[in-house]
Amino acid sequence: MLQSQLFTKTKKEAPKGEEAVNAQLLIRAGFIDKLIAGVYTFLPLGMRVMKKIENIIREEMVNIGGQEILMPVLQPKLNWETTGRWGTYDALFRFTSHYSENEYALGPTHEEIISPLAKNFILSYKDLPVYVFQIQNKFRDEKRVKSGLLRGREFFMKDLYSFHADEKDLDEYYEKAKQAYFNVFNRAGIGDSTFLTFASGGSFSKYSHEFQTLSEAGEDKIYVCEKCRVAVNKEIIEEQSVCPECGNKNLKEEKGIEVGNIFKLKTKYSTPFNLKYKDEKGVEKEVVMGCYGIGLSRLMGSIVEVGHDEKGIIWPESVAPFKVHLICLGEKNKAKCDKLYKTLSTYGRSTEGRQKAGIEVLYDDRKEASAGEKFADADLIGIPYRLVISEKTGGKVEIKKRNEGKARLVDEGELLNLLIN
Ligand code: ATP
Ligand code: MG
């Protein structure tokens, strides 16, 4: 991608009233734009990151048997009345049609839609277990929205729902889902700072689990057991002030961002929607359910909260908008830069294979920008490898990693080796 053609430009200042580091950096660098508090546009750079996060999550969900669907955002009141949540779910956006008396909600979560939907297809024990998920915008009328992408009123979520014949089967799947969640956060580059956190299971289970990423920006207080690498949240510490795994009393208070949540719903939603199946003997039984959420936009914000310095964002390679930021200094070097851009972006591509990816390069070909501006933008945007061609680099290319201080000169062969391995 040529930077001169990019839809966005970087900004020196973040908008007034935007306090969160993730939003300040993402807005200044041109990943997102704020429409109103808690509502953001995802710009080309932001979409590239979001798609990578989405693909990681999708792969891990498919890997545990998830089948992707897309349910409506616009939902009738009746479904929410069936569970009694129309009046009690505070963050529910509700409104009335202008043409009729009909009332609707914008989906903040989809138990009210998936449970009656599943009734169409789950009839007998032979139809179980089954797992479906979606990746979609969710809407919540959140009271406080000062944390940028960490708490939106419109945000992206992956929600997976599992359906089982009995609790034992749910328990087994729950452990698989837990592992898939670890995989997601490891692959997204925040595995080291993300803790499995015991949370209340509501009236149906002893515990649920959150995945909490340690960060000063976190809105939640968690209590970490350094022996087991797990944590408990506030609800649990009030009930039992020890680690649920090893009984350790010395739990360390930290701030965390809840990037994911897994929950054994059991029959909480099957009961009101009368979701039942016939077992081997033809006896009707209630379907047992689990739900599993990850906030994709919150995850993107968390990655920035964990990975940045005073100059800008430091993306993990797996979710970076591009792998390489190629900076061309001086019009005289343009031909050399163009050639390297072509070599990298078509690397490994066969002549007819137009689909093959090559190396993803953002090429700063801007004529009007100074060297200083180009370097500052590269640090702000945070692409993992910065390459420079200038008067000084001669026949070589300067390479520097965003998270390292020193640059070095390499020839093209060495460069390709570094980027491919
Ligand atoms: P919180 O306690 O932070 O309000 P929650 O427990 O209500 O979140 P869930 O209903 O479990 O959240 O939603 C699943 C996931 O969706 C959360 O783990 C989080 O990653 C994400 N999420 C929830 N609310 C928001 C929001 N307002 N903005 C962005 N992501 C969110
Ligand atoms: Mg929560």
Present the secondary structure layout.
Elements: H1 21-29, E1 32-36, E2 39-42, H2 44-63, E3 67-68, E4 74-76, H3 77-82, E5 93-96, E6 103-106, H4 111-119, E7 130-139, E8 154-164, H5 167-187, E9 194-200, E10 207-214, E11 220-225, E12 230-233, H6 234-239, E13 252-266, H7 270-273, E14 276-278, E15 284-286, E16 288-295, H8 296-306, E17 308-309, E18 312-313, E19 324-328, H9 334-345, E20 361-364, H10 371-381, E21 385-389, E22 397-401, E23 408-410, H11 412-420
Parallel strand pairs: 3-7, 9-12, 19-20, 19-21
Antiparallel strand pairs: 1-2, 4-6, 5-6, 7-8, 8-16, 9-10, 10-13, 11-12, 11-13, 13-16, 14-15, 17-18, 21-22, 22-23
Helix pairs in contact: 1-8, 2-5, 2-8
The protein binds adenosine-5'-triphosphate (ATP) and magnesium ion.
Adenosine-5'-triphosphate is lined by residues 109, 140, 142, 151-152, 155, 157, 258-261, 293-295, 297-298.
